[in-house]
Amino acid sequence: MKKILCGLCIVAALCISFFVWRNRAIRVSDIIDFDMITKVEIWLNDDCVTLTENGDIKEFTDLLDSMKLKKKLRPESDGFVFSIVIYHENDTKNQLTLLEDIIIDGQYYGCDRDYCDDMLKLYDSFQT
After folding, report:
1. CA–CA distance from 20 to each of 23, 32, 38, 94 (Å)?
2. Is the dihedral of CA 32, 82, 92, 73 positive or negative?
3. I need a surface site. Which of 31, 83, 97, 121 has the fewest CB within 10 A?
4. 106 SS3 class
5. What is the pLDDT of residues 61-104, one digit of tens each?
6. Does 119 have pLDDT greater than 90?
7. Cα separation of 103 and 15, whole Å?
8. Distances in whole angstroms, Cα of residue 38 to Cα of each of 29, 56, 93, 99, 123
């Protein structure tokens, strides 16, 4: 009887640990190396703003790094507001889709708040 109870306690502790680990807040910088970025394309509908200057890229990554994310199993909404392509020095790239939540390279994350207005202000500031 004690072995069964001990086994149930261990299983319960593992389940709780997994739940806590799964719901921890992470940052975009935990997923994407900001130091390797060479170019960013921010798409809104059929219009694109391309960032290549270090100061512009830093302003963009500061916005991304302010996001507090939690992994999600599947999206709760469809469509996109912004489609973003981040290019790196080693010829790799990351694909982001920003809506109420964010999709980074096919992985879904819930944001602590809606960042679309902030991204729109940034997008508008870079348009020429």
Report:
1. 5, 23, 35, 27
2. positive
3. 121
4. coil
5. 999 999 999 888 765 666 668 999 999 999 899 999 998 889 99
6. yes
7. 26
8. 15, 11, 10, 24, 18
Q: Is the pLDDT of residue 20 over 60?
A: no
Beta-carbon-side half-sphere exposure of residue 83 (alpha carbons within 13 Å): 10
Containing 2, the helix (H) or strand (E) segment is helix 2-22
Tell me which residue of 10, 29, 2, 4 sits closest to 109, measured CA to CA: 29
Distance between CA atoms of residues 39 and 128, nearest Å: 17
Looking at residue 62, its amino acid is D
Q: Residue 49 and residue 113: Cα distance in Å, rounded? A: 24
Tell me the whole-structure pTM to 2 decimals.
0.77
Contact 100/65 with Cβ under 8 angstroms?
A: no
Continuous segment of H or E residues that includes residue 128: none
